[in-house]
Amino acid sequence: MAEELRIDVSLPPGLHFLSAFLSMEPADSLLSIARDLGRGLVTEAVQKFIWDHCITKAQEMNHFHVPYLKNFLKKLISEVELSQAEVLDEFYELYAHYMVSWKDENLRKESAKISKFVSFLFPDGSLSCQNFGKFVVPIQCSLNMLEELNRADIQIPIFSDPGCSIWPSSLYLSELILSFPDIFSTRECFEVGSGVGLVGICLAHVKASKIVLSDGDPSTLANMKVNLELNGLCCLSSPTATSERTNECTQTVECIHLPWESTSETELQAFAPHIVLGADVIYDPICLPDLVRVLSILLRPKQIGSSTHSFPVTEHVDDQRNDGSRGFKTSRDHPIAYIASVIRNIDTFNRFLSLVEQANLSMCDVTDELKPMNLLPYMYTYNRSSIRLFTLKFK
Ligand SMILES: C[S@@+](CC[C@H](N)C(=O)[O-])C[C@H]1O[C@@H](n2cnc3c(N)ncnc32)[C@H](O)[C@@H]1O
């Protein structure tokens, strides 16, 4: 009983377990945190904590993913049995229920989308800290879950649906935004290849003054809109589409179809953002020339008096901001891009570098200078050290 009192769901490691569970981290990661909770063993008190705070919560949610829960229960039961401790009856009963009622073949027939919750956990005293130190973002994304299920025999191609998966660089950019809100608040931000929309949701959280999310894939765009709505944001498909706004919206975000290959210079010039963002967009060598063309138009210094963009000319003069001692200046005249990327293929990356050079852009690796806080300490599958952060500006 004394041990049971120690497990507090609002403090680590209890908070980490709940966050990892809701973000559907692999069962092995969950069990590792569960062992921390029980000082090396998944004790009865730990099991009760898991049952009360996670399993019952998951069952109350209409859409919690049954195969994930079933796989976790299986691994949990086997871990406790191996340690020769007692398994709670509730776990056996629920697992037996799923064994009878759920067949893994259903996975292929099921809608390929799942809902998870990404919890950004703020250290005590952080100014960004709201809702008791966490910012929880519900996200609908694709079922790219070989890791979660640990079932190599279920042939679901990973990344068959890249725009509907959460890629590590968008977690990194999200941490960056939440760690350095002053860089982004009251700035007009434009993201290329926005995928599920997580970066845009974080920009809204820190009160960016205007947010434009874009993607070239219509089904990704449709999924992004669902995510914005799940997070209380209104998605406008154009700046004038006020009819799409509902009373439940706390803020509006523009979501546009923007294929890098075919979007015209005039269309792009109309945006004139302060800040351009991109997460894991440097991966397909065929798209790189078009991506760099889009970036260079968005980053081109704006000429005072130019009539191509929709913002008042007076804003050009006095809206420059120097973000603290780091010297990351942003203004509409000299926009800056933050591009986070995992360098998976060095040839592809070098190709990007040479295109950037040809486009008269300067690219700077600021990974060591502008380090975000680790707001996802429970997410063992997220390898932050694999990600580089670059700034891009016109020379
Ligand atoms: C690897 S995913 C990254 C998604 C998201 N930024 C993240 O980090 O989670 C690349 C994104 O770029 C989009 N994309 C790829 N090629 C594109 C193109 N030619 N034009 C516009 N968007 C494109 C994809 O639809 C996808 O959403």
UniProtKB/TrEMBL annotation:
A Pfam entry, by short name: Methyltransf_16
InterPro entries: Methyltransf_16, SAM-dependent_MTases_sf
Gene3D superfamilies: Vaccinia Virus protein VP39 (3.40.50.150)
MF (Gene Ontology): protein methyltransferase activity
PANTHER family named among the record's database cross-references: HEPATOCELLULAR CARCINOMA-ASSOCIATED ANTIGEN, PROTEIN-LYSINE N-METHYLTRANSFERASE EEF2KMT
Annotated protein name in UniProt: Uncharacterized protein
Gene source species: Cucumis sativus
